[in-house]
Structures are given as structure tokens and as C-alpha cells.
From TrEMBL:
<keyword id="KW-0975">Bacterial flagellum</keyword>
<dbReference type="Pfam" id="PF00669">
    <property type="entry name" value="Flagellin_N"/>
</dbReference>
<feature type="domain" description="Flagellin C-terminal">
    <location>
        <begin position="267"/>
        <end position="349"/>
    </location>
</feature>
<dbReference type="GO" id="GO:0005198">
    <property type="term" value="F:structural molecule activity"/>
</dbReference>
<dbReference type="InterPro" id="IPR001029">
    <property type="entry name" value="Flagellin_N"/>
</dbReference>
<keyword id="KW-0964">Secreted</keyword>
<comment type="function">
    <text>Flagellin is the subunit protein which polymerizes to form the filaments of bacterial flagella.</text>
</comment>
<keyword id="KW-0175">Coiled coil</keyword>
<dbReference type="GO" id="GO:0009288">
    <property type="term" value="C:bacterial-type flagellum"/>
</dbReference>
<comment type="similarity">
    <text>Belongs to the bacterial flagellin family.</text>
</comment>
<dbReference type="Pfam" id="PF00700">
    <property type="entry name" value="Flagellin_C"/>
</dbReference>
<dbReference type="InterPro" id="IPR001492">
    <property type="entry name" value="Flagellin"/>
</dbReference>
<feature type="domain" description="Flagellin N-terminal">
    <location>
        <begin position="6"/>
        <end position="139"/>
    </location>
</feature>
<dbReference type="InterPro" id="IPR046358">
    <property type="entry name" value="Flagellin_C"/>
</dbReference>
<dbReference type="GO" id="GO:0005576">
    <property type="term" value="C:extracellular region"/>
</dbReference>
<protein>
    <recommendedName>
        <fullName>Flagellin</fullName>
    </recommendedName>
</protein>
<feature type="coiled-coil region">
    <location>
        <begin position="262"/>
        <end position="314"/>
    </location>
</feature>
Length: 349
């Protein structure tokens, strides 16, 4: 025959254990009512918890790419702004060049303007974005171009002086430059001087940028070039045009040689403007593709959100009903515990 030991202590302990369980369930229900999500997703979903983990991982991955695309779009817009400024200042400079063919004092004016434009061009090539430079290519942490008019003389300025001396036997500030013929100047501009803006001279004396453009992952399956770099032909032509006016001693040249430089610079700036237009179109296409990719991923994120909610979502109204039921249960348990604790054999002796 089996007997069961019964006492007020054991009955009270059992009640307290049941009460503690209800309190935990009440806390879970409060959390579910607040978040509309299971308090313990793994326990509730069981083997399906793996599905919600995978969905949330994909959700996070897509949102990371969307956030990165936002930064890429900002960088593309900044690049477009710089390029448009180069076009605008280039057009203005062409107008000044065409008006400077009278020579004399205007040569000094156009030289000063070219020096300013060259400084502005180099500043544009060194435009920073975030922790890097817009026109550095994949060498985004390296400043693309050095100051041409720095002290001591930059490599680019020294190479121009050396080339001029090698060609004419004098430096640019020598009054004897007035004896340089238009034909000789044209030959110099088309050969020796032009070579200073071609490789390897350009990448050794002028530019530290990489010719490889930065690429960005704009979706799960797309890698896209999302930058340009200071080694593009258009930028070399801007530098060449501004430098020949700024640093070939135009104020000392005779009118024929001066006009040869003016005509060459005008040609180069016009070509550079055309090529920058091509770069703008290329970056514009990239910007459009980035935007399209982000919109597609946002749709995917919405679908994933609905799938996760289907698995994890709790009806807050149902949770509120459970809370009321558990509060009633706890009130009964407290009352019962109080009555049990009040029981004593002494009352019956």
C-alpha cells in the first residue's frame, strides 16, 4: 500500500512553483504584446526557427548593400558635380583664350587666369569624399595630384622647365623667348610638351591615382564601376592646356608663338570638355543602375519582412487576453496560498 506525505509546507511549495511558472509566462506575454513577436522564437517555432534565422540574415545582407548603395550614389553625385564644374570653367576659359589673341598685356591676364584654373583643376582632382579621394581610382587613400606651384618645385613643374630648356636652350622667363617661331613652338607643343602628359611621365610626375576605377557590389549579383580617375584623357588635356598658358612664358613670346599656344590650348580644352561629357554619361549610367538595384532590393526586403512576420508575429490582442487570464490565475493562487499557510492542526486539538 502506497502512502503520500501531505503537509501544508509541501502544498505551499507546489503552489509557489506553479505561481513562478505563471509569472514567467506573464512576462513573456507582456513582451509579446509589446513587440508583437514571440518571446522565445526558437522554443516556439522549433525546427522552423532555422527558417527565420536565414530570412533575417538575408534581410540584414540586403539592407547592408542598400546602405552602401546610398553612399555610392552620394559619391557619384559628388563626382558629377566636380565634372560639371570643370566643364563650366573650361568653357569660360575658352572664351578668355579667344579674346586674348591681341597679345601684349592680355597675355599676362590670361596667364594669371590659367594659373588660377590650374590650381582649381588640381583641387578638383584632389576632391575628398569620406575617407578617400573621388578621382584616385582604387588608390582611394592616396591624394591624386601634387600642387604644381609648390615650393620646392613640384616634379611636374620641374619637368616642364626641363623640357622647355631642352627644346629652346632657355627657360620660360628669358626675354629671348620672343625669338621662338610659331612653327618651333607648335612642334614643341605637339611632341616634347605633349609627352609630359602621356605615360610614363604623367604617372611619375603628375598623378598618383590608379587607372583602375573603384568597383562596388550594388546587388547580390552585380559589380559595377562607380568612379573615374585622374588619369583619364580629359583630365590630362585640361592639365596640358592650363599648364601651357600658365608656365610657358606667354608674356615673353612673340605674337605668332603666343597664338600657337592659344590655339593649341583652345583645342585641348574643347576636346577635354567633350570627353568629360562622355565621363558624365558613364557615371550617369552607373548612378541609374545603382538606383535600380536598390529599388529591387527594397522590394525583396519587404517580401522578407512579411515572411518573417508570418513566422514570428504574435497578435497583441491575443497576448492581452492571455495576460488577463494569467492575472486572474495568479490572484487565485495567491488566495489559495494564503489559506494553506493559515491551516494548522492546533485548531483541531
Amino acid at each position: 500500500m502506497k502512502t503520500t506525505f501531505i503537509s501544508t509546507n509541501s502544498m505551499s511549495a507546489a503552489t509557489r512553483q506553479a505561481l513562478a511558472k505563471v509569472q514567467q509566462q506573464l512576462a513573456d506575454a507582456h513582451l509579446e504584446m509589446t513587440t508583437s513577436r514571440y518571446a522565445d522564437v526558437g522554443k516556439t517555432l522549433g525546427y522552423k526557427a532555422g527558417d527565420t534565422i536565414s530570412l533575417r540574415q538575408e534581410f540584414a545582407r540586403l539592407n547592408t548593400i542598400i546602405d552602401t548603395n546610398s553612399t555610392v550614389t552620394s559619391r557619384l553625385k559628388s563626382s558629377q558635380s566636380v565634372l560639371q564644374n570643370l566643364v563650366d570653367t573650361g568653357r569660360d576659359f575658352v572664351g578668355q583664350l579667344l579674346g586674348s589673341r591681341v597679345g601684349g598685356a592680355s597675355a599676362l591676364n590670361v596667364k594669371a587666369e590659367a594659373q588660377s584654373r590650374l590650381d582649381g583643376f588640381i583641387d578638383a582632382m584632389n576632391m575628398a569624399f569620406g575617407d578617400g579621394y573621388l578621382f584616385a581610382g582604387v588608390n582611394s587613400d592616396v591624394k591624386p595630384m601634387a600642387d604644381y606651384f609648390s615650393t620646392p618645385a613640384s616634379a611636374s613643374k620641374q619637368s616642364v622647365a626641363n623640357a622647355f630648356f631642352a627644346e629652346f636652350g632657355i627657360y620660360q622667363d628669358d626675354p629671348a623667348a620672343a625669338n621662338i617661331s610659331a612653327a618651333d613652338m607648335q612642334t614643341f607643343l605637339d611632341t616634347t610638351f605633349s609627352d609630359l602628359f602621356a605615360d610614363p611621365a604623367w604617372t611619375s610626375d603628375w598623378s598618383s591615382a590608379s587607372s583602375q576605377n573603384a568597383r562596388s557590389r550594388i546587388s547580390s549579383s552585380e559589380l559595377l564601376e562607380t568612379s573615374t580617375n585622374a588619369n583619364e584623357s580629359a583630365f590630362r588635356k585640361f592639365a596640358q592646356a592650363y599648364t601651357m598658358i600658365a608656365d610657358l612664358g606667354v608674356e615673353n613670346l612673340g605674337q605668332p608663338a603666343f597664338e600657337a599656344i592659344i590655339d593649341k590650348a583652345t583645342q585641348l580644352v574643347n576636346e577635354a570638355i567633350q570627353e568629360v561629357g562622355d565621363l558624365q554619361a558613364r557615371l550617369g549610367i552607373s548612378e541609374q543602375r545603382v538606383g535600380d538595384a536598390s529599388e529591387r532590393m527594397k522590394l525583396q526586403v519587404d517580401i522578407l519582412t512579411r515572411q518573417v512576420k508570418t513566422l514570428e508575429e504574435v497578435d497583441p490582442n491575443e497576448a492581452a487576453v492571455r495576460i488577463n487570464q494569467m492575472l486572474t490565475q495568479m490572484e487565485i493562487s495567491y488566495a489559495l496560498t494564503s489559506r494553506i499557510m493559515g491551516l494548522s492542526l492546533l485548531k483541531y486539538i
